[in-house]
Design goal:
The complex is a heterodimer of chains A (155) and B (471). With 155 residues, chain A is of the alpha+beta class. Chain A has 2 helices and 7 strands. In chain A, a hairpin with a 2-residue loop joins strand 4 and strand 5. A 6-stranded parallel sheet of chain B has the order 5-2-1-6-7-8, with helices on both faces. In chain B, strands 9-10-11 form a 3-stranded antiparallel sheet, with helices on one face.
Chain lengths: 155, 471
Amino acid sequence: MCDIIWCKKCDTVNYLDPYTFWNWEGKTKCAECGTVYYIHMIQGFMYRGPEERPGEEPDILPLYADKPNQGYECYLPGVEGRTRPYQCLPREVYLGRADTVKFSIRGKPVRGWAPQPPSTGPLGSCGFKWEIEKLSPEVWQEYQEKLKRGEVSEW
Amino acid sequence: MAEVKREAYFEELPGPRSQEELEEMKMPYEEYCRKIFDPKSTFLKPEALKGIRWLSCTMYIFTPHSVANLAELGAECIKFEMPRMGDPMRHTSPFNEAYLYPLHDSRPRTGTGLGFTNANTNEYFVTLDYHRPEAQEILYKLVKMSDGLTECYRPGTFDRWKQSYRYLMEINPRFIYVWGGGFGYGPKTFGGSYDILGQAHAGMSSITGFHEDFGGHPTKSTNWVIDWYSGTHITVAILAALYWRRKTGLGTMIEFSQVQACTRILGYTVPLYHRFGIVRQRWGNWDTQLCVHGIILCGKSDYPDAPNPQLKYDARYVMVSAFNDADFKELCNIIKRPDLFEKYKTHKDRVHEQAQIEIYRTLEQWAADKSRSEVVRILTEAGLLAMPVMNDKEVYECEHYRQRGTIRWLDDPIFGDVLVQSGYSTGLMSETPRRVRWIWRPVGADNVKIYHELLGYPMSQLQKWYEQGLI
């Protein structure tokens, strides 16, 4: 976890853990007292802020917060209204919502989702070809719809 | 003497009849290259190393890559992994989610990370806990019918398990054995290795990045370049060993220290020290021997509205080269600073550190109100060399790479649509091109193929080993 916003009002350290290599601009909220701060980081450096923005809505909540001067009080990820849940890498940038990849960027199916049904041969051995049409019909169906909509390209 | 009746006369054969005609009939060089290196015909051509069988007891990138090179050239490579777990690199994904499933039937919630790509291409994947004595017979059987093996354990580990070169050469005197690791024999023999250790220990990091005067520090290359580089050098040694074996019938042991290999790319650093006692310093994105020959920062991004910060903020760097006098004069005219050329007329003047600081600062001031593509366009139109510092999105979109087949989409038999560069990003070969058939296969995917179909063990025996955790 990184990028600390230390709220001096309530002496709480909010850990933002922004994604995508520490380039982030937006507003976040102190988990303890709810003060909204604006920050702008470039390559992990605090370029602007934290500046108080009273009355404005935060873009994201901190991931974790603690009060190091008062023992071990802390807010773990996912406390309702205070911290956001930790759900791996968000595909929906900054919203904290993980997405499972079923198609490559050009729209063709990849076998990238979990869990996979056991389809292998004896002793963990595995056939050469994964027949997506037979083994994952729902993804195949989605692929056919993408083809119809023209969302599949060569590059 | 019977009269010889000639069916064909040289003059009647199709083709050029004189040197001039030959020259006329030759297609333009560009067209010729496009024909013989056509990416579409890759899979129609033979493979150079077909017939070679290689065993791989390797992990991570460095040693696996030495075997992947062989596999891309057509060798049959068998990768051994620990049962149910596999190569630790499978679990070293760049992000939490970027896994391709499944890893193994017994672990439905585990996948293989994209970090595994390119280091184990086209191989067959078997599992074997080869440190157990009962596994020895299986390994020895394979050694008898293989050309070589690459391993990456601490020095002497395979020797303790009676499967080092001196044991295996008794079974197969033609065997080529590769040990690849951190330090090799010597005072630091027990040191393990990582790419960053190679970069640091060989002195590479000390000359990479900006000088401390400019806020720089010794810098590690973001990617594991020394792993990839050292793996390739092992392959060079293997190919030489195969040629030596053709001449003498004898195998070779290759002992490859990664920290040692890294010193090779330090250029004049070592001779500079031996002659003058000078310890070379870092000079970042500029050059100690040439000026102007570096990377500058422009003021505006090429993607000002992109949501991705890597595009929005980082797409601002340009590589510029104008070091000879005429080019530098032109550059000074373009940036409307002819006085700079008057001040630094000769290359000797320009390459001095104070001069470089002034020249690059002036260039960046000129570029402060321009975007990266504007700078490239202005300089290129003036006949100077300038290229944007491209990111992977731009590499993907680069038409030059697409036409040459440098990066390609592969319909992997198991994992579906994947973008690969691997073998295609190396030198092209007209007759026996490198190729990627599959990126990797699940852990133990080829157990039956290798142990049952190749070695002839009955399925009941395999089942027993599977239950014991041997395979």
